[in-house]
Amino acid sequence: MFSKFTDSDFNHYSSLFPGRVFRGSEINEDYCHDELGTAHGTPDVLVKVLSTDDVSKVMEYAYGRNLPVVVRGSGTGLVGGAVAIHGGVMLDTSLMKKVLELDENNLTVTVQSGILLMELAAYCDERGFQYCPDPGEKSATIGGNISTNAGGMRAMKYGVTRDSVRAITVVLPSGEVMRFGSKVVKNSSGYDLKDLIIGSEGTLGIVTEATLKIIPKPEHAISILVPFRSMREAISTVPKIIRAQVTPVATEYMSQDVILFAEEYLGKKFPTHDSDAYLLLTFDGNTREAVMHDMETIAELCLENDAIDVYMIDTEERSASVWSARSAFLEAIKGSTDQMDECDVVVPRSLVADFILYTHEVAKTVGLRIPSFGHAGDGNLHIYLCRDGLEERVWEERKDRAFAMMYSRAKEIGGLVSGEHGIGLDKKAYLLEALGERQLEIMRGIKKVFDPKGILNPGKVV
Amino acid sequence: MDILVCVKQVPGSSNVKVDGKTGLLIRPKKGNKLNPYDLYALEAALEIRQKTGGKVAVLTMGPPQAKEALEECVWMGCDEGFLLTDRAFGGADVLATSYTISQGIRKAGPFDLIICGKQTTDGDTAQVGAETAEHLGIPHLSNVIRVRDIAEGHITVDANQENMIVTVRIALPCLICMESEVNTPRLPSYRRKKATDESVIKSFTLEDFEDRDPSHYGLKGSPTQVQKVYPPEKSSSRTMVEGTSSELSEKLYSLLSEKKFI
């Protein structure tokens, strides 16, 4: 097992990083859980790091002393991934916000891993570029996004975080600093360790810097909000959209009940209440004509498939009125209940409607309110189980039953446990269930190669 | 009830920059859009129509392409549009603009209620609504935040007058200017776009007006002469004030007085 954290350990770190090392009551309670707050654990020490070198020094000592280490960015995770369940050292990367390089010729930006998604987006936007991944949680760090391979709302056209990471600087548990990947576009040079680190939730190495792919910002974008008479009609149109010769940037599904939560949460009305089920699609491009052509192609397709209407969102103000609601869904559902848990399942895109209908069935069977929304275009759903004042035992029982039913159905239809939030602590049992012992064994073997002492984010993922 | 909403087509980005040397507007690549403030006026009109029936018309003054703004209003639910377009209207200041609009309203009307937005994102004067009402000789009220009641011959509204909300009953016909953010404007419908017939937009020129004297319109009818256009000075200098709450309020008061802000 791990060594007990001592005064001498604290003194060592304090001498290395004066003013940036905290313990006991100096550690804010926020560091003891993540955004969803199901898992709790108090680190023995919190170290606010500023550079790769800092991280390397922390790890070299922790490795020698056999101390567990958990990395934390903004703490916006939803599966208990960045919670120090074994105590030990918590590395806070939130001060590592520097943009190290903008390479306009190779279209890359190199940043420290603590920069927030919204800060990176603003930096690129001001210079006429776009970092493509667009996860809903804009105050997450890029390091956090890389650790879970976050997807977001532009995945349909531009892919997920992994598709936009060219290279990463990684500190191994021993403190060694490695550079995986490079600015190159193609790579067939041995095992891709960069891609192995992406999505490994801080269990293999600590990402301190990342070289990210950017694109010249598309000049024009237009969204459409499409009301349908039912969820099935809305979602069964999605495979037809996928087959059309147009690739929307985003294809989101939203239902009236979730929109109403967002209205209440934001104190702002949504522009329409025509229907119970909506698709929200965005198109972008470099000429207005091309974007309008794409929009009209899909608008016609939606109308042919019995959409009630197609509303056009073509200005900053209209975009804000709709997308601000979409971006607030998670917080809005959270605000509608006393406690919630989530299922970030991903299923084949043709079966999204079936799966959502199944969640309605689960809700009735187990007696829980289960609102959902999601990325209909990529099959990734965000399903929320709401406690609504149930007593602890009943809540746990019903929640477990609902999760078991949903993950089991997802497996049956070829889905996977997590689309973008990761496994962390909360979803480990379901990962084992979905992938089986042999695959987990391979993963544990990989973990052992990177982290032979098992000190990095112990107890998570595998 | 027949309602008219006055709208304007403005540059597509609200962040319009001015060339410091030439004084010319740097037009953004995004083209033009409907003035965002007018959307609240439109929504208010469409909500009144839902209750009272009647029609909602829109009117704008501008070059021929300003027709796009009127079409967009029709896609949002308006019944018809009036475009006031003539070379003689070009270069108009607030006085000439509001006079032109009042002439257009006389031609297109009559209307029971005229609704304007608070201001535009390009001109920013927030005076055209009130001056139009003066030219028409009808009552008007600005900063309207809510329409409380519509009855035979009058309308009751709430208006935000800086330090108080006033509830005012106004005889019809009248003109009101809606505050921003008082409702959520509906979105333009693609179905309505497809179904819109060109004939719902009518164009009027100087020849169609009661007053056809060109000296009342455009640059000739504008007493305001723009000498120079330049971007506002930007300063990021900061003064930090420290002390207790009462010391801070004293220091802040004397600082602001010194700079003649208060």
CATH fold assignment of chain B: Rossmann fold
Strand order of the largest sheet of chain A: 5-6-10-8-9
CATH class of chain B: Alpha Beta
Identify the CATH architecture of chain B: 3-Layer(aba) Sandwich
Biggest sheet details of chain B: 9 strands, mixed
Q: Sketch the topology of chain B as an H/E string, one letter per element.
A: EEEEEHEHEHEHEEEEHEH
CATH H-tier superfamily of chain B: HUPs
Individual helix count of chain B: 6
* Percent of residues in helices of chain A: 25-40%
Mean pLDDT over the residues of chain A:
94
> Separation of termini of chain B?
45 Å
Secondary structural class of chain B:
alpha/beta
Tell me the structural class of chain A: alpha+beta
Q: Which value, in Å, is the CA radius of gyration of chain B?
A: 21 Å
Name a few traits of the molecule.
heterodimer; A: alpha+beta; Uridine Diphospho-n-acetylenolpyruvylglucosamine Reductase, domain 3; 4 domains; four-stranded mixed β-sheet; 36% helix; B: 262 residues; alpha/beta; Rossmann fold; nine-stranded mixed β-sheet; two-stranded antiparallel ribbon; 25% strand; globular
Give an overview in words:
The complex is a heterodimer of chains A (462) and B (262). Chain A is an alpha+beta fold and 462 residues long. Helices cover 36% and strands 19% of the residues of chain A. Chain A has four domains: 7-94, 2-Layer Sandwich (Uridine Diphospho-n-acetylenolpyruvylglucosamine Reductase, domain 2), CATH 3.30.43; 99-216, Uridine Diphospho-n-acetylenolpyruvylglucosamine Reductase, domain 3; 220-330, Alpha-Beta Plaits, CATH 3.30.70.2190; 337-422, Alpha-Beta Plaits (2-Layer Sandwich). Chain A is built from 16 helices and 18 strands. In chain A, strands 5-6-10-8-9 form a five-stranded antiparallel sheet. Chain A has a four-stranded mixed sheet with strand order 1-2-4-3, covered by helices on one side. The longest helix of chain A has 21 residues, at 392-412. Chain A is globular, with a radius of gyration of 22 Å. The mean pLDDT of chain A is 94. Chain B has 262 residues and is α/β, with parallel strands linked by helices. Chain B has one domain: HUPs (Rossmann fold), CATH 3.40.50. In chain B, 27% of the residues lie in helices and 25% in strands. Chain B contains six helices and 13 strands. Chain B has helices at 36-52, 67-76, 94-108, 128-136, 190-195, 245-258; strands at 2-6, 9-11, 17-18, 25-26, 32-34, 55-61, 80-84, 113-116, 140-151, 154-160, 165-171, 174-178, 201-204. A nine-stranded mixed sheet of chain B has the order 11-10-9-12-8-1-6-7-13, with helices on both faces. In chain B, strands 2-5 form a two-stranded antiparallel ribbon. In chain B, strand 6 (55-61), helix 2 and strand 7 form a beta-alpha-beta unit. Chain B starts with a strand and ends with a helix. The chains are: A alpha+beta (462), B alpha/beta (262). Chains A and B meet through strand 12, helix 10, strand 15 and helix 11 of A and helix 5 of B.
